[in-house]
Design brief:
- The protein has one helix spanning about 5-15, and strands at about 1-5, 25-30, 40-45, 50-60, 60-70, 80-85, 95-110, 115-130, 130-145, 165-175, 180-185, 195-205, 215, 225-230, 235-245, 250-255, 265-270, 275-285, 290-295, 305-310, 315-325, 330-340, 345-350, 355-365, 380, 385, 390-395, 400-410, 410-420.
- The strands form seven sheets. Strands 1-21-20-19-18 form a five-stranded mixed β-sheet.
- The chain is an all-beta fold.
- It is globular and about 55 Å long.
- About 45% of the residues are buried.
- It is built from one helix and 29 strands.
- It has a single domain (about 1-85, about 170-420), classed as Neuraminidase (6 Propeller).
- Strand 20 and strand 21 (about 315-325) form a beta hairpin.
Length: about 425
């Protein structure tokens, strides 16, 4: 295994001055305005005019979005938009059916309109002060287009129609030929256990489904989870996920053509198999290939690190497994990776001690997945972290990156954002 941290130590030994390849620009921004708990699963897109659209799920209100100014000269700013409203109990104590809109994925369009893909959950809730009992009745992956002002611009598309029930954790990506959506299913009631796994569906550029949903993972007896997507320039799509293996959990991948035809079977990505390897994230960089990241056990008790593996356009390994992070705390979780317009990768992940999140870390990598010479990791956040469920990265037209996460801006839990500049 190739260790990036070894290069870091070597540079220190020979006295090379370390410069920060990536750096924070400005201050940490608070995106969410309301203080209704909890704010989860942020996603973002940049509008190319100095602003950004950020969407997230609020546990009581539903799926919200807000436009924010990212560049100082931008006038983009607005109030929170409630895109999809939850249906809650009218009073507590009480009981009855409720609807929750969760886990948004975002696809932005050049005219300012956008698609939200999300988990629509129907449940029966018994609620009393300080205690809830929630029985999930149905979970479906749905999509809807909104105009630039956050108003519906079309009918709801039932992405998961015809696929097994209890669908969650959607991901969406634009390809050279259209759109692809992936999600996981986990039949908690055991009604259709052979339907568990990772599913996907291809859509045209206007969001119309192209054929039925199909299973990506091939072992239907195991619960596969945490899908991620990356698309090559010719329209090929890589789907990666985690699933049980002989040790604990491993990371797997499968590649599809632009027409949605599988280019071979699923295969494991990680080389180290001891312990849990999970929560993959993937990106494509022209001239380099796919880079798949995950957090994995180190072999030491209570320690995880961020690892990676480069793949070619057919999903075959290029070189060996890479260790990305330096291990400043016991646990490093949930990586996010994005290919930048400067021909590099930017990676971010959560840093935890034994009990609490400590920082959102980031590092810039070369096209080969190596640490850029003379550079090191940075802290993305300024304020305290919240218990993190997702970090999301999006590229800026000028070559930088915007990160969004579940933060604790000035002691108020909510959605935070930070501009990141890349090295010259």
């Amino acid at each position: 295994m190739r260790r990036i941290s070894s290069l870091f130590l070597l540079l220190l030994t020979v006295g090379v001055t370390l410069a920060t390849a990536a750096s924070r620009v400005g201050t940490e921004l608070r995106v969410s305005v309301n203080d209704t708990p909890r704010q989860r699963y942020p996603v973002a897109a940049l509008d190319g005019q100095g602003g950004a659209l950020v969407a997230w799920a609020n546990s009581r209100l539903g799926i919200l979005a807000r436009r924010i100014a990212v560049d100082p000269a931008s006038t983009t700013s607005g109030a929170e938009m409630r895109l999809l409203a939850n249906v809650n109990l009218p009073a507590i104590p009480g009981e009855g059916e409720v609807i929750a809109h969760k886990e948004p994925a975002l696809l932005y369009q050049a005219d300012g309109s956008f698609w939200i893909v999300w988990t629509h959950e129907r449940a029966y809730l018994k609620s009393a002060p300080f205690h809830d009992t929630r029985t999930v009745l149905a979970q479906e992956i749905r999509a809807r287009k909104f105009n630039a002002q956050g108003q519906p611009a079309g009918d709801t598309v039932f992405i998961g129609k015809g696929a097994p029930p209890f669908q969650t954790n959607p991901r969406v990506l634009r390809t050279a030929n259209g759109i692809v959506v992936a999600w996981q299913t986990n039949d908690q009631k055991g009604q259709q256990p052979t339907g568990n796994g990772i599913y996907a569906r291809f859509l045209d550029a206007n969001g119309a489904p192209l054929g039925a949903a199909f299973r990506v993972s091939q072992n239907a007896d195991l619960v596969a989870a945490n899908p991620t997507l990356a698309a090559a320039g010719d329209g090929r799509v890589l789907v990666a996920w985690d699933a049980p293996d002989a040790s604990s959990t491993g990371v797997y991948r499968r590649v599809y053509s632009a027409a949605g035809v599988a280019l071979g079977d699923a295969a494991r990505v990680n080389t180290s198999v001891d312990g849990r390897q999970a929560h993959p994230s993937a990106a494509w960089l022209d001239g380099s290939g796919f880079l798949v990241l995950w957090h994995g056990a180190t072999g030491e008790r209570f320690r995880t690190r961020i690892y990676g593996q480069r793949l070619d356009g057919n999903g075959q390994a290029i070189g060996g497994q890479i260790e990305i992070s330096r291990g400043l705390e016991e646990y490093e979780y949930d990586p996010a990776v994005i290919a930048t317009q400067k021909g590099t990768f930017l990676v971010a992940w959560m840093l935890w001690d034994k009990s609490f999140p400590r920082a959102l870390r980031a590092v810039e990598l070369t096209a080969t997945g190596a640490l850029r010479p003379g550079t090191g990791e940075i802290n993305v956040n300024t304020f305290r972290m919240d218990a993190q469920y997702r970090t999301f990265l999006t590229t800026r037209p000028g070559g930088g990156v915007l990160a969004v996460w579940e933060g604790f801006h000035e002691r108020r839990a909510g959605i935070s954002a930070q501009r990141i500049a890349l090295s010259e």
